[in-house]
């Protein structure tokens, strides 16, 4: 009983703290630097790609593992709840894509902004949301991050720079460029990551927003999370050119292995430096 | 260019003796003291934006031709020179893109004023207006507020055809999360635009191209930089006791002209300038209908699912026992706006239509 109560209290804490208090997993505070090679090289479009060597530490490695494993378990649990009809409406799962959320967080701060579409549960966790806020929102409870009024597709955490959670495919890209616009206007020296899928990559508003971002040198980083399906339609039937990192044409692009958390971390660090100095960059994972 | 067309039409022989602009000027000068300063709606809007940009560095302008061209209708004249390219942005012709960028900037805490060259073009961006702007405050349970203003000329101009003459008041007014304003006079234009820019919620500000050049008297209070008109309050432009006429934007001028004509026939009409379409000032409308017992609603847009339809249903719900006659709805004819001048005239409400409707409501028509 005490165990259950303690686990319930754990749900209220940000997940990394919650898990570190569980005695079963090994933890380490070692910050000895380790150099890792990404499994695949980066490919650049109109830009020299970053090096494949990524610096990390044992502590960071364990954090990556815990965070990604937690996200996977959370999404599988959400899947079961959805099939049990305890989650209503839509439930878009991020299992398989955890490396993007976790790698990105390792490269940026909470003052940088992230905006994504409706596959947002793990991005929310990565930005500091708790499991309780997540499940409560999915199940329509007032302790949810949007007090039960948003649902699966409308998680937000403005104090950590997470601007949602958007149900309309592609809308988040101009919104993300708008966040970048405001960051530049306010001289904050921060960037915005606008995440979208390979389906949204074909949206006209992406090109409208990217054109303006390029004209005005906005610190906007467009990140295409390519899972090779746009809703139910396979990529080869929807996109004439699946080289999404090249879609920016005059905007530099980077192709990254999204399954490799170190590659993601390196790419996001590289993109942030680029965006602050040179304006928008497109990346495809 | 549109100004030139209007001048040519007005100087054309065979045109009705009292043109629209002349009519409004006559009525406006009759309604107000001649001691006040005169100000055009265009200058009213320009001064409102100027003062709000000066007062709050978070306010910025974005739209097509707002900067170097000085504004497609010169509403933003001089603002690029005064505030620089960091506050006034000329955009490419990509409404979906720049409306989305504006909403994103508003999420972050800036206060964008986004101009659509006409509200017809807002349809290209309507997903961002409705789904990204209007609904975000509710969906995020208050975390995200969207202090954005979308403004531009709405409804018919002169001879611009179907795709450039549609009134979208009813479209936006049906959406929770938006505020929808429609000024008539220069006082309205200044006060409502200032209120809109200061408002923490998304506001659709529906101007009228044909009113831009009209002058109205403005008092010292209106010219003060802190002047503001409350959102959600209508204005009684003319008091009366026999029939209530509700209108907004250009139709207020027509309603006032109709009231003059009706007065000669012994019908005292009360003209309500709605000012705010959402939230609608139902209380003022109810009080007026309870006084007069007869109602005529006037709008330029189409009748079906229009502003008049909402006012009618609302009044029937609240003041049914006070009504002495069926409510009369005057609206644009149910066709896409034709181009030919005579057909355009027939497609829009005219003063005589309002007069006839008021007489029907008083059981005085033939």
UniProtKB/TrEMBL annotation, chain A:
<dbReference type="InterPro" id="IPR050642">
    <property type="entry name" value="PDH_E1_Alpha_Subunit"/>
</dbReference>
<feature type="domain" description="Dehydrogenase E1 component">
    <location>
        <begin position="66"/>
        <end position="282"/>
    </location>
</feature>
<comment type="subunit">
    <text>Tetramer of 2 alpha and 2 beta subunits.</text>
</comment>
<dbReference type="InterPro" id="IPR001017">
    <property type="entry name" value="DH_E1"/>
</dbReference>
<protein>
    <recommendedName>
        <fullName>pyruvate dehydrogenase (acetyl-transferring)</fullName>
        <ecNumber>1.2.4.1</ecNumber>
    </recommendedName>
</protein>
<dbReference type="GO" id="GO:0006086">
    <property type="term" value="P:pyruvate decarboxylation to acetyl-CoA"/>
</dbReference>
<keyword id="KW-0786">Thiamine pyrophosphate</keyword>
<dbReference type="InterPro" id="IPR029061">
    <property type="entry name" value="THDP-binding"/>
</dbReference>
<comment type="function">
    <text>The pyruvate dehydrogenase complex catalyzes the overall conversion of pyruvate to acetyl-CoA and CO(2). It contains multiple copies of three enzymatic components: pyruvate dehydrogenase (E1), dihydrolipoamide acetyltransferase (E2) and lipoamide dehydrogenase (E3).</text>
</comment>
<dbReference type="Pfam" id="PF00676">
    <property type="entry name" value="E1_dh"/>
</dbReference>
<keyword id="KW-0670">Pyruvate</keyword>
<dbReference type="GO" id="GO:0004739">
    <property type="term" value="F:pyruvate dehydrogenase (acetyl-transferring) activity"/>
</dbReference>
<keyword id="KW-0560">Oxidoreductase</keyword>
Automatic annotation (TrEMBL), chain B:
<dbReference type="GO" id="GO:0006086">
    <property type="term" value="P:pyruvate decarboxylation to acetyl-CoA"/>
</dbReference>
<dbReference type="InterPro" id="IPR027110">
    <property type="entry name" value="PDHB_mito-type"/>
</dbReference>
<keyword id="KW-0479">Metal-binding</keyword>
<keyword id="KW-0560">Oxidoreductase</keyword>
<protein>
    <recommendedName>
        <fullName>Pyruvate dehydrogenase E1 component subunit beta</fullName>
        <ecNumber>1.2.4.1</ecNumber>
    </recommendedName>
</protein>
<dbReference type="GO" id="GO:0004739">
    <property type="term" value="F:pyruvate dehydrogenase (acetyl-transferring) activity"/>
</dbReference>
<comment type="subunit">
    <text>Tetramer of 2 alpha and 2 beta subunits.</text>
</comment>
<comment type="function">
    <text>The pyruvate dehydrogenase complex catalyzes the overall conversion of pyruvate to acetyl-CoA and CO2.</text>
</comment>
<comment type="function">
    <text>The pyruvate dehydrogenase complex catalyzes the overall conversion of pyruvate to acetyl-CoA and CO(2). It contains multiple copies of three enzymatic components: pyruvate dehydrogenase (E1), dihydrolipoamide acetyltransferase (E2) and lipoamide dehydrogenase (E3).</text>
</comment>
<keyword id="KW-0670">Pyruvate</keyword>
<dbReference type="Pfam" id="PF02780">
    <property type="entry name" value="Transketolase_C"/>
</dbReference>
<dbReference type="InterPro" id="IPR009014">
    <property type="entry name" value="Transketo_C/PFOR_II"/>
</dbReference>
<keyword id="KW-0809">Transit peptide</keyword>
<keyword id="KW-0786">Thiamine pyrophosphate</keyword>
<feature type="domain" description="Transketolase-like pyrimidine-binding">
    <location>
        <begin position="39"/>
        <end position="214"/>
    </location>
</feature>
<keyword id="KW-0630">Potassium</keyword>
<dbReference type="Pfam" id="PF02779">
    <property type="entry name" value="Transket_pyr"/>
</dbReference>
<dbReference type="InterPro" id="IPR029061">
    <property type="entry name" value="THDP-binding"/>
</dbReference>
<dbReference type="InterPro" id="IPR033248">
    <property type="entry name" value="Transketolase_C"/>
</dbReference>
<dbReference type="GO" id="GO:0046872">
    <property type="term" value="F:metal ion binding"/>
</dbReference>
<dbReference type="InterPro" id="IPR005475">
    <property type="entry name" value="Transketolase-like_Pyr-bd"/>
</dbReference>
<keyword id="KW-0496">Mitochondrion</keyword>
């Amino acid at each position: 009983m005490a165990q259950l109560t303690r686990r319930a209290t754990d749900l209220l804490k940000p997940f990394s703290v919650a898990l570190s208090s569980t005695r079963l997993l090994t933890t380490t505070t070692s910050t000895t630097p380790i150099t890792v090679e990404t499994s695949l090289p980066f490919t650049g479009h109109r830009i020299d790609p970053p090096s494949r060597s990524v610096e990390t530490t044992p502590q960071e490695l364990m954090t990556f593992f815990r965070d990604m494993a937690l996200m996977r378990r959370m999404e599988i649990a959400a899947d079961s709840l959805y099939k049990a009809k305890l989650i209503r409406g839509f439930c878009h799962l991020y299992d398989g894509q955890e490396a993007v959320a976790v790698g990105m967080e390792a490269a940026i701060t909470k003052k940088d902004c992230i905006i994504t579409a409706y596959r947002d549960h793990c991005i929310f966790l990565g930005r500091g949301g708790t499991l309780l806020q997540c499940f409560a929102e999915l199940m329509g409870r007032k302790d949810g991050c949007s007090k039960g009024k948003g649902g699966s597709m409308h998680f937000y955490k403005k104090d950590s720079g997470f601007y949602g959670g958007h149900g309309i495919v592609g809308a988040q890209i101009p919104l993300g460029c708008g966040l970048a616009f405001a960051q530049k206007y306010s001289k904050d020296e921060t960037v915005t990551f606008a995440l979208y899928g390979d389906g949204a990559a074909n949206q006209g508003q992406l090109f409208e927003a990217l054109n303006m971002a390029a004209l005005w040198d906005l610190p906007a980083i467009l990140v295409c999370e390519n899972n090779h399906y746009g809703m139910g339609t396979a990529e080869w039937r929807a996109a004439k050119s699946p080289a999404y990192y090249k879609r920016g044409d005059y905007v530099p692009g980077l192709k990254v292995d999204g399954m490799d958390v170190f590659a993601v971390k390196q790419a996001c660090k590289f993109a942030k430096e680029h965006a602050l100095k040179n304006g928008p960059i497109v990346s495809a994972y | 260019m549109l100004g030139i067309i209007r001048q040519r039409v007005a100087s054309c022989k065979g045109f009705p003796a009292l043109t629209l602009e002349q009519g409004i000027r006559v009525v406006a000068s009759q309604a107000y003291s001649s001691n006040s300063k005169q100000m055009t709606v265009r200058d009213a809007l320009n001064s409102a934006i100027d003062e709000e940009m000066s007062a709050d560095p978070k306010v910025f302008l974005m739209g097509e031709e707002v900067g170097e061209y000085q504004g497609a209708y010169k509403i933003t004249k001089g603002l690029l020179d005064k505030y620089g390219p960091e506050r006034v942005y000329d955009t490419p012709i990509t409404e979906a893109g720049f409306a989305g960028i504006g909403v994103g900037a508003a999420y972050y805490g800036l206060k964008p004023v986004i101009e659509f060259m006409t509200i017809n073009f807002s349809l290209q961006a309507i997903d961002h207006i409705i789904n990204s702007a209007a609904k975000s405050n509710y969906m995020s349970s208050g975390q995200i507020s969207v202090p954005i203003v979308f403004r531009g000329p709405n409804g018919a101009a002169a001879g611009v055809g179907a795709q450039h003459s549609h009134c979208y008041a009813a479209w936006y007014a049906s959406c929770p999360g938006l505020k929808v304003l429609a000024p008539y006079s220069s006082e309205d234009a200044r006060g409502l635009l200032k209120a809109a820019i200061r408002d923490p919620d998304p506001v659709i500000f529906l101007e009228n191209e044909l009113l831009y050049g009209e002058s109205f008297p403005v008092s010292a209070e209106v010219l003060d930089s802190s002047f503001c008109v409350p959102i959600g309050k209508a204005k009684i432009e003319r008091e009366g006791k026999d029939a209530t006429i509700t209108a907004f934007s250009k139709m207020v001028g027509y309603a006032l002209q109709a009231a003059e004509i009706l007065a000669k026939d012994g019908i005292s009409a009360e003209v309500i300038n709605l000012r705010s379409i959402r939230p609608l000032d139902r209380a003022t409308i109810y009080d007026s209908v309870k006084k007069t017992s007869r109602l005529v609603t006037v709008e330029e847009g189409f009748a079906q699912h229009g502003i008049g339809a909402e006012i009618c249903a609302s009044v029937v719900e609240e003041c049914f026992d006070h009504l002495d006659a069926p409510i009369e709805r005057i609206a644009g004819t149910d066709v896409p706006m034709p181009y030919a001048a005579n057909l355009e005239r027939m497609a829009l409400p005219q003063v005589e239509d309002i007069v006839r409707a008021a007489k029907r409501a008083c059981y005085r028509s033939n």
